[in-house]
Amino acid sequence: MNDGRSSAAVRTGPRILLSVEDDAWGTLLSRPADEMVREAVFAAAAGVGLGSDVETEVSVTLSDDEDVRALNAEWRGKDKSTNILSFPMMPLRPGDAPGPMLGDLILARQTLEREARDEAKSPDDHFRHLLVHGVLHLLGYDHESEPEADEMEALEIAILAGLGIADPYADADHSADALT
Length: 180
Known about the structure:
The chain is of the alpha/beta class.
């Protein structure tokens, strides 16, 4: 039955392009990666007030420490792996509307796995936390100064609570400074 609305006008949130470059991601996570990526990206978008009609695209690559280390060295001058890299398509400030391409997120499996183990977190929860963190970076949030870090952490805590994930900053040793 036609209710007069164009199906093309109905959006469900950001478009996500997922690439799995390291097959071991399939054994690390308890649920399909695409479901968890969608859940985290949509929660982050909603958490900053972007509606389900937002027309932007996010690329997520599930990679390994070696590839992330090379990218981190090339683009950030840091010759070491990190848990997630965020590459915004264009610089945004918090509250700016994203363009058609929001940016790229690249995650390092071994680093995520080690951090989850060392911090006694489930890999699933840490994975979704890093994705939320990365999307916030793409949307212009940062943690270079204490006020920025406080704002970003508060957003992350609220978004993650909506996903049923405990406050990842409850232990003061694990602040946003430890994330990219």
